[in-house]
Specification:
Low-confidence stretches: 1-105, 386-393
Subcellular location: Membrane
Largest sheet: 2 strands, antiparallel
Shape: elongated
Main location: membrane
Strand order of the largest sheet: 1-2
Structural class: mainly alpha
Distance between the termini: 69 Å
Number of helices: 19
Strand content: under 5%
Number of strands: 2
Keywords: Membrane, Phosphate transport, Transmembrane, Transmembrane helix, Transport
GO biological process, one term: phosphate ion transmembrane transport
Helix content: 55-70%
Membrane topology: Multi-pass membrane protein
Amino acid sequence: MAPFSPYFSMTRCNGVRGGVSSLLLHDTAARVKPAIRYAPSLKTWFPKQKLPELSHRIDTCTCRLRTPCASLSSYVSADDESTNIGASNDAVETESSASGSELELSDMADAFHISSRTAFAITATIVFAALTFPLVMRSINQAVGTKMKVLSYLTVLSGFYMAWNIGANDVANAMGTSVGSGALTLRQAVLTAAVLEFSGAFLMGTHVTNTMQKGILVASVFQGKDSLLFAGLLSSLAAAGTWLQVASFFGWPVSTTHCIVGAMVGFGLVYGGVGAVFWSSLARVSSSWVISPLMGAAASFLVYKCIRRFVYSAPNPGQAAAAAAPIAVFLGVTGISFAAFPLSKIFLIALLQALACGTIGALIVSYVITKQLGHLLSSEADKPTAADNQSAQNIGFLSDIAGPRGAQLEIVYGVFGYMQVLSACFMSFAHGGNDVSNAIGPLAAALAILQGGVSGAEIVIPLEVLAWGGFGIVAGLTMWGYRVIATIGKKITELTPTRGFAAEFAAASVVLVASKLGLPISATHTLVGAVMGVGFARGLNSVRAETVREIVASWLVTIPVGAILSVFYTWILTKLLSIVL
């Protein structure tokens, strides 16, 4: 049985071994051109992969792709460098025209390559679960009286709405680059992220939250005003969810933290006065609009240039990639274990445990790469490559280096594809544990107010509420997540496994370091900046300026829009509460 590659593989036929190497029968077929580029519409965003036409006709076999894996034809040209965005879009428009007579499907059905009936069934199941599950939650049944139960039910739905929009928008941080580079298909990304996001939210989600989210509001201002505070918390969830849904509809990756902060600021400023807001905290949040993308872009630029300098220019790029992977995993796992998940409070013990975790991770990755790509590494070990003709001594760090071709390209993409999937899985798990608090924090506080259990500033979050937030994230990811994934993975710049890994690795590193140093940082803004940095490393024309302008504009209006919506919703809710209660 031929080794499995998660990125591109072809079935055996007529005794010819599957893989890119079986296609490259002649030197004239060394450069594989992509059959389909990026689509301006969801209808052709995830087309069925087509094999590239070779200059030599291969009569001995007819190769077809094993689904759901992406093929090499879905990537950029074999040198991993030269692209023509205009020509790509023309090719897509032609493909879109040709399929115009096909049955029009919903966006969700088209993105996942499923029937509209199946998409409707999935959506109906999620809606039914969202409306019925709260009825059996202990947090609602503990409420006294019919009115309190109804308010608790509406509160739980508001939290679900916010979590749904977090899944629809923010999960693209973890999976967008993997889908864009072809390392994962959309289905694989959604299924993987669904499991990891829910696990992260349920297992790592904070069990204690502060009623004044993110240190934005001054708690003393709202003492003795439980009804107003309840209305503000509920309105903040609705306001942040509304803006996130608008942003997700247009495919804009915005920060969920900024959404909830903007909503809380609007509520506090109007109903508590100027003294109700910690303006220094708001200034730190706003500064992340500049700090996050700049740090992400700089880090990804350096990582991608290192890959091109030390892997692509090596005599055997495939072996260089296979050797570099365990080192990168060792550094990444060690840093994450030490900084984010210290196993001991004693520095020396924590460091040794982190080093042990990094060593284990490196050994596992080395074993997997050898097992999956060992046949190609052995067959290509002694073959001359294009890199042999380059003088490594004369290559500068910023030099334009030709990428590998043929089987060497398959090895390089395979290695970095594995690493990209690993980094995406970790980011997805961590995201579920971190950002779910943006939804369940205000939710838990509002429920505590209804139940009369507010004591001090800290509220204990029940496990069922954690699970509820995780379910909301998964639901939003399933129904609308593909929209922002399209922006991160396709519309900013073209991504391949090497570029996608550079962006994800750089973004994760920046977020980790900045969090430990206490710098204001946004994971969303950092990743967008990292993707842009990879594009800049290939040339300014490789970044789509129109998409970047739309994203930046959405960042600038996030806090003001959240504030305005929160004030509006609070005004409506206070009127309704005065009638009901």
